[in-house]
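assembly run, all chains below
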Amino acid sequence: MSGSNAVRRIDWLSVLIYLSLVLIGWVNIYSSTLEPDSSILDMGHRYGKQLIFIGVSLALIIVVMALEASFYERFASLFYVIVLVLLVGLFLFGKTIAGATSWYSLGFFNLQPSELAKTATALALAKYLSDIQTDIKRRKDQFRALLIILLPALLIIPQPDPGSALVFFALVFVLFREGLPLWYLGLALLAVLLFITTLIFGTIWVGIGLALLIALVFALKRPSVKIPLLPVVGLFLVSVVFSLSVDFVFDNVFEQRHRDRFTLWLRLEKDPDKLEEIRKTIGYNTYQSEKAIESGGFWGKGFLEGTRTKGDFVPEQDTDYIFTTVGEEWGFLGTASVTLLFTFLLLRLVHLAERQKNAFSRMYGYGVISILLIHFFINIGMVIGLLPTIGIPLPLLSYGGSSLLGFTLLLFIFLKLDANRLNEWA
Amino acid sequence: MKKLILSSLIILIGITFIGRLSYLQLFRFSSADQIYDDPAIKVVYDYPERGHIYDRNGKLLVANQPAYDVMVIPREVEPLDTLEFCDLLGIDKERFDSQLKKARVYSPRLPSVMVPQLSKRDYARLQEKMRKYKGFYIEKRSLRDYNTPAAANVLGYISEVNEWDLKQNPYYEQGELTGRTGIEKQYEEILRGRKGVKVIQKDRFNRDIGPYKNGTLDTLPKPGTELHLTLDKVLQEYGELLMNGKRGGIVAIEPESGEILAMISGPTYDPALLVGRERSRNYTRLHNDTLSKPTWDRSILAQPSPGSPFKTLNALVALQEGIITPQTTFMCYNGFYVGNKKRGCHCGGGMRTMNSGIYRSCNAYFAGTFRKFYDNYVTTDEGQDIWEKHMRSFGLGNYLGYDLPTGAPGRVPGKEYYDRVYGDNRWSSSYIISNSIGQGEVAATPIQLANMTAAIANRGWYYTPHVLKKMGGEEIADPRYTERKYTTIDPVHFEPVIRGMADVYNKGTAKWIKIPGIDIAGKTGTVENFTKIDGVRTQLTDHSVFVAFAPVDKPKIALAVYIENGYYGARYAGHIASLMIEKYLKGEITRTDLERRMLEKTLEHEYAKPYSGEEFEINEYVW
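ok done. output:
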């Protein structure tokens, strides 16, 4: 009885979107890695391997759905610890691919623990926050929650894989949902804004701009509204100091390749010839991916007809840049569809998370949303030239076993929790 | 509330992405340049051979020779030993750098010419080392190979396409050749054929990985078509020899077909000068010669007053309108009076009929005819309209419509013209009396004079002159050249005029230059002309003009000869015309003394006079 009920309670809309994205991903991986004279099931090729990963993922889904929902909460801490151990173990036993020591070689398959760490961290964070003794308003608990998030990130940065590490910071959304004061977010936004404006305009203009802004606020406010002067002045001073430190960090802490990415992204180089030069060298990936997407037009060139895809002009086109294949071969129809599918999936998950009665499920749901959202945002943003180059995969579409299994696990644990929301097990 | 923030963030990101994608894929996308703009696609061409050109008797005039351009694709250039490469190419480093920069500015991914037209020997030396230099390759091209030193003005030349051509015609790519003037330009697409296209898919290491779309966009080259011209190689070459040291033009036409037998401009140049690496130096030299203008085709561009040959047309018009009969007489007082001003005549004076008027070229006779013609109408306007209509029917006063890309209209003034010059109704036949003897406002190119002569030879009709006879072995069928154009003069009126022209040889102004055994009809012309020296209008030695056709009864050739500053009509133009006719009809010259004199005699001393800075004498009787 419970079996059929559970099946009926699964959110099939999410499952449908999941399957669509995985299918779209495979079709485009096939196109990106196809070579003449090879069959679909050729295991020597990535599209063949990806087909196996998809099969394994489907099996994993069945396992995830078959287990008791309470299992995930109960063993959340254990997962987390195991993942941390795996991440530490990489320093000793890790396999280096393309300069990053991020994999365990299992012979038939390279396991990337950082992909599993996302699920484990989301689970652990949800478990910690949902504990009755935790109060997110307390500094101490805020600090601990932050530590749960930071620990795996700090282990991943030196691999080096700063892109994957960045993803974990998205989990702070969960904290905000659970009551972390919003002005933290305001401060963070201010910092980002100061960083960007300082790079573009320089500290002096940023300082003058801020001062003018504050003066404007004071001039326009109604006399009855009292704004305490001291904190405002304090904030102003801190901002200026921060702005000064941006230049220092940019020039002395960042490496040249990082600087180049920002130079390109924010168009800091004013000489158009030099900028074009950077675009075609440092920005080669983005330049090529933009061009490939652009060349698809509205209808696209058609399946297997992408000339830039065939010519292998865009690097990493089956992994981080899979979206360019969609753009070139399926055109605006394809790219808009994928964008809409992700948007709907995320909105659907927000809806599901909010209907959870159980705090753990809701918090975990927010963790899933945060991680999917940041991947979606950074990956596509990078590929279409809105964001600087940050190498993280597009969930469910990019080639990669660990990535596909990791996101499948991440999503379906939540769908299991959601399917189980009416059971009084907690 | 917080749920809304997250949902809004998701939607905002979605909208931003869709917006950016619309910009990239809908706004910035343009399907037109997809193939050519795509680094993954390379287009290579297979050039067909340019069509050969033959004369009317199947003698080869123009063939092809191979040449080798060194091309560069700037994007693909890798660091290289520049000095060694420059040495191989035979250029210095500065030129190398500037050429490469120019190529990069034109396009980093499209081929540009680095060094044009290497000789076969340079090519052999370079070929084996070419692999070392990434981004450079050798493109084989076909250059013209001339089998005659003559007819440069008719054949024209080909040269590399320029930026303007590239913009005008998407067919062409950098480094390709196109016809610039003459036949090469006029029949460019036929001679050129169509290059074959192969579209090749490449990977990012620039390796070919097979035909794009399985070769469905590829096309085979379509070879160029051979052309047979109406020119007679022998006559053309002979005429150019006769023009040695003389400026002017000769046009010979076969009256029964309108085919141009020879079209000579003097001075001219060897067409082979404009081929190969010396091309641009030679071109500049020819082009900068602004005194003798060897690239300016006088046979179709010079527009002097026609002079006395024009009298024949005035006679025809007067006959057609019933103003005179061949027997009508006019008195010549060694000249005639306009008001109380006397204008001279060299005919010897006395009573003139049409016959003696023509063969003695009597100015008084034609002035009288001209006045009588205008007096016949109520207004001068009406007379002018009728006169203009008849003149234009001989192909004067407008572009003739022959198949060459340049030309000049000449001038047949109408009443509007004189209204502008003298004011409405403020002119009469006395004002324009010069037109009666082919001076004054009328002007005609040598080819127009030759065509007019052909129309007289045919007794009232002509075919538009043309230089193309066969295209790919097929006689042309273009109605512009195969349909007769009729003049407005009835055939009966031609006989008395032609008798007069025949008597020009028998007893008239050209009686000294008869050819034994050939009846010729002709008309001399001595054309006054002026130039400006330091702003002063100065008269120069007369132009020598002659028109003729032969044989009189069954004309095979009609021609016009125009020699700048050659003095009276029979002096240079008449002699040259008679030699041309003899050469064409007999194949050989019996009067070798005359021939030698014409070949050797130059008029350079005449042409130097206006630039000497000193006073000079015109119309000198020195032989």
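The interface with chain A takes residues 2-3, 6-7, 9-11, 13-14, 16-18, 20-22, 24-26, 28-29, 31, 34, 37-41, 201-204, 209-210, 212-213 of chain B (CB under 8 Å).

The mean pLDDT of chain B is 90.

not gonna interpret more than that til we talk
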